[in-house]
Amino acid sequence: MSSTAVHKIYGGAILGLSGALLLEDVGAFTEPRVRYVVPGVVIASGALLTIDPLLHGKAAPTNYKAETRQHMLLGGLLLAAGGVDLAAEADWLEHWSWGLVLPAGMLATSATFLFHAQHGDPTQHELLTAQHRVLGATIAAAAIAKGLSVVPAEDGVTPRWPEMETAWVVGAGLAGIQLLLYTEGSPQRASGHSGHASRSLQLGVFGQGLALAGVF
Questions:
Q1: N or C: which end of the chain has fewer CB within 10 A?
Q2: Helices (DSSP H) in the chain: which residue ranges?
Q3: 160-194 residues labelled b (16+ CB within 10 A) or e (exposed)
Q4: pLDDT of 147-166, one tens digit each?
């Protein structure tokens, strides 16, 4: 499976999840067990990232060692954050501050995208770096909103900023769209193709901009 395909699979899963959460948020359906879906997806994503080399198999890109280490580290982090969030949703961990563990994990995830090691031909690096940094910033914004959504009001029960619950879901959906638009371009073998690489970079960033405008 190619690297691009893996990104798109994650994007489709995240977008589908955020869509379901938004429908539930507006009252389209009522299902108490939907609260377990988010930590479940986080745990599944962490498990897949820890076996990242097996997902790519022989299609693994060149210069992939540093990127693989980042993916496996991120996978372990998501497994831990998802496990704690699952326990919190099941009311095994009662204090509201346990709800901050998942946003903290999301912030750490955003950092791995902001400083993500790149693979492939050097002419692709600008395109990949731009996409990963935009994605990292989007996840960071969603993480902050998610963290604010769990902070209680003075009564200790109702959320202080209930609108943040919708905001973080929208941010997650945007991240899903960006993953669906992810592209690695085409490696270039000659320096004379740098203009083509720049155009690919511009198209990639333009695609991210369209995603941002489409959601908001």
A1: C
A2: 3-25, 37-50, 52-56, 65-89, 101-114, 125-149, 163-180, 194-215
A3: eeeebbebbbbbbbbbbbbbbbbbbbeebeeeebe
A4: 999 999 988 878 999 999 99
3-state secondary structure of 16: helix
Nearest to 118 by CA among 107, 130, 108: 130
Position of tokens 């604010």?
148
> Residues 6 or more apart from 17 whose CB is under 8 A from it?
37, 38, 41, 172, 176
Rg (CA), the chain: 18
| Residue whose tokens read 């692709």 | 124
Alpha-carbon span 2 to 56, nearest angstrom: 6
Q: Which residue from 94, 92, 133 is spatially nearest to 115, judged by alpha carbons?
A: 133
The 3-state DSSP class for residue 34 equals: helix
* Token pair belonging to 202: 């511009």
Per-residue tokens: 34: 């939907």
- Cα–Cα dist 118/67, whole Å: 7
| Position with higher pLDDT, 82 vs 48 | 82
Cβ atoms of 17 and 172 closer than 8 Å: yes
Extract the tokens encoding 190: 């000659």
> Left, alpha or beta for 118 (phi > 0: left; psi -120 to 50: alpha)?
beta
Residue with tokens 């203009």: 195
Distance CA 180, CA 6 (A): 10
Q: At what angle do helices 194-215 and 125-149 cross, to 10 degrees?
A: 20
Q: Are 75 and 48 in contact (CB under 8 A)?
A: yes
Strand partners, 32: none
